[in-house]
Amino acid sequence: MEKSFYSEEEVKKTAEKLHEKIKKTGFSLEECMAFAPLILEINRLKKEKNAVILAHSYQTPDIIYGTADFVGDSLELSRKASETKAGIIVFAGVKFMAETAKILSPEKTVLLPSIEAGCSLSESITAKDVQELKKKYPGVPVVCYVNTSAEVKAESDACCTSANALQVVEIFKENEIIFLPDNLMTKNIQNQTKKKIISWNGLCVVHKEFNTQQIEEVKRKYPGVKILVHTECNPTVVELADFSGGTSGMIKYAETHSDENFMMVTECGLSDRMRVELPEKKFVGTCELCPYMKKNTLELILQALKNPSQEQIIEVPEEIRLKAKKAIDRMMETKNFSD
Ligand code: SF4
Fold first, then answer.
1. 145 lines ligand 1 (CB under 6 A)
2. Closest by alpha carbon to 16, among 27, 3, 5?
3. Does 207-283 carry CATH code 3.40.350.10?
4. pTM of the predicted model, to two decimals?
């Protein structure tokens, strides 16, 4: 960034305000002082350009508490942004999320700060793979997790989130369902339905890493701890959970239970968010970092707002968008959309 044109006082005030919020996540005042000029400039440009910033819960606290208008999970954020009058959506998240925002808001410009923010699940499958699956299993409905590209959604009969995956699978009268791309989530669904679920071999690089030993260790160290597990984890880990579901469900559980200790078995960003938002509770145990989510930075958000490159502007061809939207609309029938 060029030389800051904000006064020392403005920078200090912004840094102190941010530090007060995020100190529980380990950030120092010096670090917040470095973030402050970027935050001030992002927030100025946001107003000037009529933009909203969406931050997924796995983003870093400087982005979430310094710049975001909405924080949450991918579909919830895209829906909220579509209801605003903003002309520009900056999605601090990964590519499939920005595509989902574009599917729901075709008239808005959607920007993805880091063009390297992919996703191991989304990238595990292409539209051609889905077409081949459909040839192999004719007449079998295809349900895709929201963590897929627009092209894959366009080839699917319905989309789903981690919160409503089972409900969406049950919408169909057929006894066989193709569920993609998350192999571990498929196993978790298979454990709850009588239908035969045909799986794909995608994995989330974050959630596949958790194991039962980590959970047992935390349970020994913090007797009575509540274990909240994302359903992208292995079924053996899900089995040890007091609650399993998506990020919104995990947040709701922590908010509404009076227990003292919680382990959020998911990406580290969610535990950090909880430390800021539920300071009276303790979030313990280990977590994993998503290398894709962490590609976004304040610098990239600022650059994208100022002068986005062609690659940062997310486009979805209209034919694909309409088909993908149909798959998302089918999911809406379940009335339970959070990830
Ligand atoms: S946490 Fe997993 S599913 Fe989410 S963006 Fe990262 S790799 Fe993809």
1. no
2. 27
3. no
4. 0.95
